[in-house]
Amino acid sequence: IFLFSDSSMLALLGAMLASIIIGAEFETKWFHQAIVAGYSRLQIVIGKAITYWVLLICVTLPYAIGVVLVRVMVLDVDFGMQGAGFLNIVNGGNDLSLMRFVTVLAVMLLIYVGQLSLTILFAFVAKKAMLIIPMFYIVSALSGQVSLYAASVPALEKALNATPFGSQFIALSPNASNGLLLEAVVVSVSFMIVVSLLAFVTFRKAELK
To answer: How many CB atoms lie within 10 A of CB 8?
Structure first.
């Protein structure tokens, strides 16, 4: 499910973005200079997180726009198997109103941002740009595969569904209920906040050289 989706490409792009915005700053000693200049570590983490989220949305938007164009042009894009992410939405959304279609798409975009926010934590933990991409790519790929079998392990399924990596979010359907869409928004935003706080805790204890 991971490979047959846009998740694989976005995972790579998101990890690359984090390595540039955060990972590279450790190597250039920018963080040390920012602290010397009077910025607190909390300000730095918040600033980097917001910058990352904004740029990530810009990177992801072309995919979303492409899906909207497919819907507007009423193209037949049946892949013959279940996909995930935007591909799953475009695969079965022709019967929905455009407003509903765009709403589901926006929620899926937020889910992606929530998932990729994990790279913020990885960046502050690894401190090296070259390590961030393989770390997140492996985690993202494994989460997609694990979600396929999580239903047989209730505890695992519950844990995954508390994050944007839950199977119900990864394979969000165009016909998803309003309750599920709201849950996806709450879970994704909460995950983004928690990851940012963990990144701050990690960065606060980090020794800058």
So the answer is: 17
Residue 43 to residues 32, 33, 38, 172, 185: CA-CA distances in angstroms?
Answer: 13, 14, 10, 34, 25
Mean of the per-residue pLDDT values for the chain?
80
pTM of the model: 0.82
CB atoms inside a 10 Å sphere around CB 13: 17
Q: Are 60 and 113 in contact (CB under 8 A)?
A: yes
Dihedral-angle region of residue 206 (phi above 0 means left; psi in -120 to 50 means alpha; beta otherwise): beta
Sequence-distant (6+) residues with CB within 8 A of 30 are: none
Q: Which of 180, 105, 131 is nearest to 27 (CA)?
A: 131
Q: How many Å apart are CA 183 and CA 50, to the nearest integer?
A: 22
DSSP class of 5:
B
Q: How far apart are CA 157 and CA 167, in angstroms?
A: 8
74: helix, strand or coil: coil
Residue count (the chain): 209
What are the pLDDT digits (tens) for 97-118? Answer: 778 888 888 998 999 999 899 9
| Beta-carbon contacts of residue 182 (< 8 Å; ≥ 6 apart) | none
